[in-house]
Every structure is written in structure tokens, then in C-alpha cells.
């Protein structure tokens, strides 16, 4: 099955963002209440959706020039920021029972996880060597 996201580090980070969002939401459900769990889920999804848009734009990049790469990165980051602002506004505008601490806390955590894409290896030879030594 073909994926819209072909950059391995970004795909891995998106999976981590989703996992963290689900774990926090499930943990808050019995500890606090349904509104807090839903708020945490929405906070994580705002970050996840904007990160996915970023990843899709970066994955579609075909050029090999430094100029084209920088332009694609800036375009992807601009879309991510605009989408984040719109989604944050929508949640604050339309969800009356929002637990701001759960929402913003999960949002910030998933944004930090997105920045960890720099530390994920995309080198296939390193990955295969690692698998042989396991």
C-alpha cells in the first residue's frame, strides 16, 4: 500500500504523536473525566494533523537543489503553522467543556515529539546493520 508520507522519520514521528495522544487520553479518562480525556485527544490531534500536512508536503518534494529543498521546507512549515492556528481556534471556539491544561499539555508534548524527527535515522544500511545485531 502506497503512503502519502514517504519520509521515514516523519512517518515514525507521526506514529509516536498518535500513540502519545491516545495513551494520555486513555490515562485521563479514569483519573479525571471524559472532558479532560477528550481535551487531551483534541490537543494531540491538532498537532498530529498539522504535522501530517507538513509530512505530506515534504514527501512530495522531488527536487534536488538546495533552493528547492529550502522552499519546500518553508512552505511545509507555513502550512503547518497556519493549520495549527486554525485548528486551535476551532477547538477553543466550538468546544465549551475544554480542559485547557489537558488540551495545551498534550498539544505541547506532541509538538515536542515532532521536533524529534531529526533524531530518527533514515539510513537503510544503519537500520539493516542494527537488525542483524539484535
UniProtKB/TrEMBL annotation:
The record's keywords, sorted A to Z, are: Cell membrane, Membrane, Transmembrane, Transmembrane helix
- InterPro entries noted in UniProt: ATP_synth_I (IPR005598)
Q: Where mainly located?
A: membrane
Q: Which domain of life is it from?
A: Bacteria
| One Pfam match | ATP-synt_I
Q: Where in or outside the cell is it found?
A: Cell membrane
Membrane topology, record value: Multi-pass membrane protein
Does Transmembrane show up as a keyword for this record? yes
UniProt KW Cell membrane keyword: yes
- Residue ranges spanning the membrane: these are 12-32, 38-58, 78-95, 101-121
Q: GO CC terms for this protein?
A: plasma membrane
Protein's name according to its UniProt entry: ATP synthase protein I
Amino acid at each position: 500500500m502506497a503512503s502519502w508520507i514517504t519520509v521515514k522519520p516523519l512517518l515514525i514521528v507521526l506514529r509516536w504523536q498518535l500513540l502519545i495522544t491516545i495513551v494520555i487520553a486513555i490515562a485521563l479518562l479514569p483519573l479525571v473525566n471524559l472532558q479532560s480525556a477528550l481535551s487531551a485527544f483534541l490537543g494531540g490531534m491538532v498537532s498530529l494533523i498539522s504535522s501530517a500536512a507538513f509530512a505530506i508536503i515534504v514527501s512530495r518534494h522531488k527536487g534536488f537543489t538546495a533552493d528547492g529543498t529550502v522552499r519546500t521546507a518553508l512552505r511545509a512549515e507555513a502550512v503547518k503553522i497556519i493549520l495549527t492556528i486554525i485548528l486551535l481556534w476551532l477547538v477553543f471556539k466550538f468546544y465549551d467543556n475544554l480542559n485547557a491544561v489537558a488540551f495545551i499539555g498534550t498539544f505541547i508534548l506532541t509538538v515536542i515529539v515532532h521536533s524529534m524527527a531529526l533524531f530518527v535515522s533514515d539510513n537503510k544500511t544503519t537500520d539493516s546493520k542494527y537488525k542483524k545485531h539484535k
